[in-house]
Amino acid sequence: MVPTMGNLHDGHVELVRRAKTDCDVVVTTLFVNPLQFGENEDLESYPRTFEADCRILETLGVETLFCPTTETMYPRGHTLQTATIVPELGNTLCGENRPGHFDGVTTVVTKLFNLVQPDKAYFGEKDWQQLAIIRKLVFDLNFPIDTIGVATVRTHDNLALSSRNQYLSESERRLAPQLYRQLCSVRDSIQAGNTDYSSEEEKAMNALSALGFRPDYVGVRDADTLDYPRGNSDNLRIFGAAYLGRARLIDNVPVGLA
Ligand code: PAF
Fold first, then answer.
1. What does the pLDDT read at residue 88?
2. Which residues contact 202 (CB under 8 A, 6 or more apart)?
3. pLDDT score recorded for residue 165
4. Which pLDDT value is given to residue 78?
């Protein structure tokens, strides 16, 4: 199963390709899940490109597309319903500024898992926090599913592909890869032996602000637990989120401590 909210780009294509390589039958789901959008977020304007998505999936040889309506997924409305939550991973980083977002993701993913009953499910590493949360959901609730993370697909200038990139104006688009560059500077500094993570985070936040972003956070964390690094953690990842115009961009890079 390859769960998506549609508006497919090469990042999704990579997920489907991996699934097609590993599995006999691939089910792609397409559902713009209202439960994971905050009140002032882009649910209404989220790009919906159903016909184009179908053509891409046909070209990739996907047998089944499951694209339920909101009424099918939430027949009794989507407030005050049963939910699945992964609190210790869902309330940090993006969860701090998007309260309830990951509860919406885990709830819809639980429902999609139950409806589709896949053996394997594919998620992009661009949304690393989402991937970590889903791995925990699968483990804690004993879903018999392999959760597979697929490497972020980037443009020639290293912008992580995202449906929200189309909110960027031409000048914002030129600036956007700076998020990745700032995360890479933090990575390079840590790889060079710097362990003052908070000063590196602050430096990157300041650099992003000076460039014209409205940074949400830059955080050095344990890649699996998303905790603040303790002692000599050799499993660090650097996470960042920042607004540029009306687009909220997120990205993350691993720290290789050889
Ligand atoms: O990553 C996404 O596109 C969504 O969060 C997902 C996993 C399809 C759930 O709505």
1. 87
2. none
3. 97
4. 77
224 alpha carbon, distance to own chain's centre: 15
* pTM of the full structure: 0.97
Report the interhelical angle of 128-140 vs 101-116 (nearest 10°).
Answer: 60
Q: Note whether 224 and 151 are within 8 A (CB).
A: no
Question: What pLDDT, on a 0 to 100 scale, did the predictor assign at position 258?
Answer: 58
Q: Per-10-residue mean pLDDT for the chain, 258 residues long?
A: 98 98 98 95 96 98 96 87 92 95 97 98 98 98 98 98 97 98 97 95 98 98 94 89 97 88
Residue 145 near residue 118 (C-beta atoms within 8 A)? yes
Tell me 223's DSSP state: T
Residue 154 gets which letter from DSSP?
B
Backbone angles phi, psi at 246, to 5 degrees: -95, 0
Contacts of 150 (CB under 8 A, 6+ apart): 14, 15, 18, 122, 123, 124, 125
Size of the chain, expressed as the number of residues it contains: 258
161: phi then psi, degrees, rounded to nearest 5: -65, 140
Distance of alpha carbon 62 from the chain centroid: 22
CA of 171 from ligand 1 middle (Å) equals 28
**Distance from the CA of 192 to the center of ligand 1, in angstroms?**
35
What pLDDT is attached to residue 80? 67
Active site residue 101: no
- State the DSSP string of 134-152: HHHHHHHTT---EEEEEPP
Q: Which atom of ligand 1 is nearest to the CA of 4?
A: 8
Q: What are the pocket residues of ligand 1 if the criterion is a CB atom closer than 6 Å to any ligand atom?
A: 3-5, 33, 36, 105, 108-109, 127, 130
